Each structure stands twice: as structure tokens, then as C-alpha cells.
Amino acid sequence: MPDRKIGIVGTGYVGLVTAAAFASRGLQIVCHDIDPARIASLRAGVLPFFEPALAETLAAARGTVDYTTDHERLYRRTGVVFVCVDTPPSGDGSADLSRVGTVIEAIPRWASPLVVMKSTVPVGTGRRIEALLANLDRADIAYISNPEFLREGSAIADVTHPDRIVIGGTDPTAIERVAALYETELAPIVRTDVTSAEMIKYASNAFLATKISFINEIANLCDAVGAGIDTVAAGMGLDHRIGPNFLHAGIGYGGSCFAKDISALQHTAASHGTALHVVTATQQANAHQAGRVIEKLAAHLGTLDGARIALLGLSFKADTTDARNSVGVHLADLLAQAGARLVCYDPLVRPEDIAGMPSCTSAATLADAIFGTDGAVIATEWPQYHDLLAPALSASMRTPLIIDGRNLLDPTAAAAAGYTYEGIGRSGTPAGNRIVESTGWLRAAA
Ligand code: UGA
Predict the structure, then answer these.
(1) Would you say the CB of residue 103 lies under 6 angstroms from ligand 1?
(2) Which pLDDT tens digit goes with each residue over 257-312?
């Protein structure tokens, strides 16, 4: 009989989205968290963060999802338990696994759950957990690595339409029990060992980050030689060996995953005496990329000292309230250090809610943010910033200058709206790019 009752430990992004996805397929879910306030608000239908479609999906599954702080209840009611607790970075770049360890040690003596690790844990962790279980004389507990690939902002779509499902384990029965929980017709299932499953997760994130840093450096070169990055990326992406995704140039990647996971991967490599030169270069390129905005502003304004700059975007990407490791926040620091006076506007994140944010004026609207400024910087690709193109908005700025750090706006439309416009890697194409005609021509020729 396939399992119908699933336990989820940890009610962060991964835990709640996993719960919502399984619940929407009719499975019974028990979500556990150590935070009583969080569990109380989840019971009241209030989510601890914003994620598109998550509240609706959980609300539709009301009655099939139970929230508790009680371990015994969790293990009494479920036989498969997904570990979804966070693994924050430690001081030395390695992942802090204390929460994972606490979860394993808290499994009651009388319970023999199938433990499925969804948290991103460093390569080698599964083996250590299996050794810990053996030491505790708990060979009755099977362990599976089942990494998650969802993105914030599109998490529900990502888990309901995955590219692949990775299941790593030593016990074939346990692997098949986990496989049976997924709609296997939706995506290929990679059945493998625990360590390879862990590596797939880290290598995927490191590769995606590398794609971003690569295209960002090519964009910088496009600026220098007068090429257009949009057409260059589209032209590259048509090669099926390269693919079109994650070639969107900008001011770098942020968020809680890429930087943390890359550091943890490097820590693993270093502890095994292996060098990851490409991954190191990816990090270095990303660390420099936000500085492009400062260079571009200075090229137009001469000095930033005393300049009034609108910073548009504090979340690390659109459709999330998450500002952890956000490039927008990093940029606020750089701008403040250069002497700029900041006016910040983000549709969902208020600067006063961000710890360590430099002093700035918080604007209530986009129009308020840019009014009287010497330049506006787009740091997050919020679609709302297309409103910058509304007639007369540019005239409210002291200097109608936009530095588009996410290549969000159409350069031609921005120029027509009265702005001096610069994207990243678009300097050579003031009239925009010709992706549509180019791809049409290529498709016709194919
Ligand atoms: C990332 C991965 O994409 C997920 O597959 C993975 O599950 C997740 O990390 C994780 O390990 O938990 P996430 O950090 O939520 O997901 O967001 P992404 O959409 O990957 O964006 C990360 C950053 O890269 C953002 O700052 C975004 O603006 C930037 N980015 C993304 C670019 O600059 N260019 C691109 O072409 C794509």
C-alpha cells in the first residue's frame, strides 16, 4: 500500500510548499515546527511569508493539513517524514546542520519512520546521518535524500511541474516508497545513492550561478565593445546544448540559496583537497557585478556624493518578500558609501524592515520614489517598474536617468519616455535589440 500520510518537519518555504503540493494530491499531511507562534498562525490560515499561490493551495487543502509542535503526534500519525528545516551558513562557510541533527535525535524510540531529507545538506551528510543512526542502534530507520529544486516566487509551479525528481538511498524499498508519493508521469525520476543525490543539488545550484556570472561578464564586455547582450544571450540560447534559461544579465544573483550553497560546496571540496576554480570565479564575478551600477551612475552624474538616487527593488527577486542576501540591499550599501542620498521603493519590502539597511527615505509609491531624484536604479525585476514608462513620470526627476540593473525595461520605450537609459550590456543597442526578428529568421531558416 502506498503511503497516504506524510510528515513535514519545518514550516519554511520548502516545508510548506511540499506540504501544499502533497496535500493538493489528496495526501494527509502533518506539519511540525518548534515555533508555537508559527504553528498557531498557520492553524489560523496565516502564512509566515508571501509566496504566490501558496496560501490558496493550502486553503484549498484545509482539513488535510494538520499543524503541530508535538513530535509524538507527528510520528504517531505518519510513517514518512520529510525533513525541511533550514541549514544556514556557519562562520566558516560550511552549512550549520544543528537543526537537522536535532530532528534526527528527536525521533521517538518507538517510531521507525522513513526519513526523507529535503533540506539542502552538504554532500556527505546523508552518510554521516546513516552512521549516526547505526550508532544509535536505529537501523530500523531508512534514510533517503530527495533534494528540492523549487525557486522562491514560483515555488508552487516548480513543485507541481518539476524537471526531475531525485531520490537517493541505499534501500530499494525505501526509494520506491518515496517515488510512489510523486506523480511519476510528471518528470523523470533519478534513482541513485545518497551522496550523488546530494551532489546533484549542489552542482545544479553552482552551475546555475555560473551561468549567471558568465552572462554578466559577457554583458560587461558587450558594454565595452558595443554589442547587445539581449541578442547575444538569445543567439547563444538557441543552441540546445546551451539553452535559453538563466542567461538574463544583470547586477548579479542574490537570495538565500546560491551564495550559501556555493560556499558549502567549496567547503566540501576544500575538506577533500579538491579545487573548484570555476565556482570560485563565479563567486568573484558576482561580488563585483553590483559595482557596475555605481560606475554607470558616476559616468553620467560625475560624482554620487550628495546625489539623490531612487533605489527600486529590495527583495532578492520579484514575487517574494525575501530580502536575504539581496543585491538591492548590497547596492544600498554601495550607494550610501559613495555619498548618495537614497530613496527606496519596493512593492512588498519596506527598507525599515531590513536589518542593517543604510539610512534612506522610504517611498510609498514609485512616483514618490523617483520624484526630484538625479537617477533611478532598478535592482529587482518587479513588473510594476514598467510604470516608469508612464507619460510625464520622467519629467518629475531632476535628471531623468535610469540604470536598469535587471534589463527590465525596453530601451527604446525608456528613451521614448524621456529617460537617459542604461541597462547591463545594452550600451551598444540604444534602439533595443532584434531578438524577435532574429529568432524568427533563424526558425524560418531551420
Ligand atoms: C535557486 C534555484 O534556482 C532553485 O532551483 C533552488 O531550489 C533554490 O535556489 C534553492 O536551492 O533553494 P532561488 O534562489 O529561489 O532558487 O531563485 P532563482 O530564481 O534561482 O534566482 C536567484 C538569483 O539569480 C536572483 O537574484 C535572480 O535575480 C538571479 N538571476 C536568475 C539572474 O540574475 N539571472 C538569471 O538569468 C536568473
Answers:
(1) no
(2) 999 999 999 999 999 999 999 999 999 999 999 999 999 999 999 999 999 999 99
Give phi and psi for 411, each to the nearest 5. Answer: -60, -40
CA-based nearest residue to 216, from 277, 297, 289, 294: 289
Q: How many CB atoms lie within 10 A of CB 96?
A: 15
Q: How far apart are CA 107 and CA 178, in angstroms?
A: 19
User: Model confidence over 392-409: pLDDT tens digits?
Assistant: 899 999 999 999 999 999
Residues 178 and 338: their CA atoms lie apart, in Å, by 53
Q: Which residues pair with 95 in a beta bridge?
A: 89
Tell me, in angstroms, the distance from the centre of ligand 1 to residue 283's CA. Answer: 14
Residue among 17, 161, 257, 260 whose CB has most ligand 1 atoms within 8 A, to mutate:
257
What is the DSSP code string of 354-393?
STTPPS-EEPSSHHHHHTT-SEEEE-S--GGGGGGGSTTT
Q: What is the dihedral of CA 100, 104, 107, 113, to 10 degrees?
A: 100
237: enclosing H helix or E strand: helix 229-237
Write out the DSSP string of 170-216.
S-HHHHHHHHTTS-TTTS-EEEE-HHHHHHHHHHHHHHHHHHHHHHH
Give, rounded to a whole angstrom, the gap between the first and last alpha carbons of the chain. Answer: 50
| Distance between Cα 48 and ligand 1 center (Å) | 21
The domains of the chain, with CATH numbers, are: 5-192 (3.40.50.720), 227-431 (3.40.50.720)
Rounded to 10 degrees, what is the CA torsion of 193, 197, 202, 205?
A: 150
Is 26 strand, coil or helix? coil
Nearest residue (CA) to ligand 1, atom 7: 149
Ligand 1 pocket, residue 51 CB under 6 Å: no
Grid cell listed for 123: 554532500
Give, as one character, the DSSP assignment of residue 239. S
- Look up residue 18 and give its three cell numbers: 511540499
CB 132 within 8 A of CB 107: no
Helix, strand, coil shares of the chain, percent, nearest 5, are 45, 15, 45
pLDDT digits (tens, 9 = 90+) for 201-211: 999 999 999 99
